[in-house]
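In this supplementary section we document a worked example of the pipeline. Step one takes a protein sequence of length 364 as its only input; no multiple sequence alignment statistics are reported here. Step two produces a three-dimensional model, which step three serialises into structure tokens for compact storage. The input and output of this example are shown verbatim.
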Amino acid sequence: MRSIWNGAISFGLVSIPIKLVNATENHTISFRQIHTEDGGRIRYRKVCELEDREVSQGEIGKGYEDADGSIIPITDEDLAHLPLPTARTIDIVAFVPADRIDPLRLEHSYYLAASGAPAAKPYTLLREALKRSKRVAVAKFALRGRERLGMLRVVDDVIVMHGLLWPDEIRAPQGVAPETDVTVRDKELDLADALMDTLGEVDLEDLHDEYREALEEVIAAKAAGEAPPETPGPAPGGKVLDLMAALENSVRAAQRSRGEAAGEAAGEEAADGGGRETEAEVRHLPRRKSTRGAPKKAAAGKESGSRAAKSASPAKKTASGGRKTAAGSASGTKAGQSKKTASSAGTAAKKTPAKKTAARKRTA
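The serialised model returned by step three reads:
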């Protein structure tokens, strides 16, 4: 990687020669301006107003326009002799905890590479000191015509510097927050927590620029003389009647996308009338682990209930047969047996239904 700035880190009385290297790169697809009628390029030419002619880059310098409209020329030599200690130095002014730096201040990122073998020792010293203290360094440096604020931290075995905005460069968020008074209920927060737990975490390495990929497909199709890919239709969405319904539907959708609690979600939708548009019932959703176990527990309960029903079935039949035998008996057995006797017969029938029925037939 090519360095864009050479200087030194000033760390107390320690000076560390370093090179500044861009830590990020831009993959945005660039377009040219063209004349729509014939496809000709539209170019911007640099023309001197006094001579009315185009000038080359080598003839162009810097100048400051004064209040009266006059131009004060500023050369590179003038900038090189700025009365600043940070002209060629990253001057560390403090060490602070990382959470003291608001991410809103972060700008461009740069790698700081040790410049030569003599810089390896002090470079490593600063890197290990930052690691052990779990702090970041706040520094001043000058780059591209102005003094900037920076934050130094360690990534792997490299010191990284993030450009920071000055405090007066951050605008106050006045008039941005909602002005309407809104009350958020605890149950709504519980559902929001459940949704965040269901969505889970993501590895940033798995994310990519889908817009750029789609744009490349369009360019490739146009270059080949083919029709561009069709735009996919919008995702189906129902009418959201209230916040609770939107949260609950979001949790179900996230669970289905992860293959979790599919049976439970389907049962809830069926109980809700097949997804009809009504206000959702407020309830606490389980965490991800309990959600995974819920369908199994429910299935086990159904299976247990099914076994109980099968066991009770022969008992009912036996008790019924016993009543019929008693009604047709010539020995004058009373037809109206008590519920207690029928219950006893049913209990006995559960254990030995065949023997009991045969005994009653012999009695008859």
